[in-house]
């Protein structure tokens, strides 16, 4: 038995939202590179060590900026895959949730990149980011259930 999936014209919104996550990680990469240069942390070191942080505030800023980027990359596959699956049946919801994730990650990165880890939740950005990816995960699971129901 085959399943036919017809993508609505609204599918452009999830595609745009997914593209925004790629631009987000590109922007974070640029921020990490600048922070690395200011801190004087050479490659291949992923983070500054404790002694470097104690001696140089810019090393701490680098660590925080790097962590914001790394944390986003940890969620990136879940967000993209869930957006793709959820958008098969719910393109506007998927796009909105992916957009929420991306926008909150911008604020998260700005706050975290100050060098003060407590500012990573600036304006509740960490909470909104979590809400976005968890809701995407739930919506994608529901979409799978809907697709299975259609095949039975």
UniProtKB/TrEMBL annotation:
Keywords attached to this entry: Membrane, Transmembrane, Transmembrane helix
Subcellular location: Membrane
GO cellular component, one term: nuclear envelope
Main location per the UniProt record: membrane
Top-rank taxon, per record: Eukaryota
Topology class, membrane: Multi-pass membrane protein
Ribonucleoprotein among keywords: no
TM regions (residue ranges): 12-30, 122-145
Pfam family, one: MAPEG
Molecular function GO terms recorded: glutathione peroxidase activity; glutathione transferase activity
PANTHER family given in the database record: GLUTATHIONE S-TRANSFERASE 3, MITOCHONDRIAL, MICROSOMAL GLUTATHIONE S-TRANSFERASE
Name the record gives this protein: Membrane-associated glutathione metabolism protein
UniProt organism field: Wolfiporia cocos (strain MD-104)
């Amino acid at each position: 038995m085959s399943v036919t999936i017809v993508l609505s014209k609204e599918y452009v919104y999830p595609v745009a939202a997914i593209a925004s996550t790629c631009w987000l990680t590109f922007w974070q990469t640029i921020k990490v590179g600048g922070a690395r240069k200011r801190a004087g942390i050479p490659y291949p070191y992923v983070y500054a060590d404790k002694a470097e942080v104690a001696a140089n505030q810019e090393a701490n800023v680098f660590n925080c900026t790097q962590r914001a980027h790394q944390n986003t990359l940890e969620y990136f596959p879940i967000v993209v895959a869930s957006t793709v699956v959820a958008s098969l049946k719910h393109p506007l919801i998927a796009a909105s949730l992916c957009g929420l994730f991306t926008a909150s990650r911008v604020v998260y990165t700005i706050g975290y990149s100050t060098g003060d880890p407590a500012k990573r939740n600036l304006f509740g950005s960490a909470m909104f980011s979590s809400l976005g990816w968890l809701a995407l995960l739930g919506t994608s699971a529901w979409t799978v259930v809907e697709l299975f129901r259609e095949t039975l």
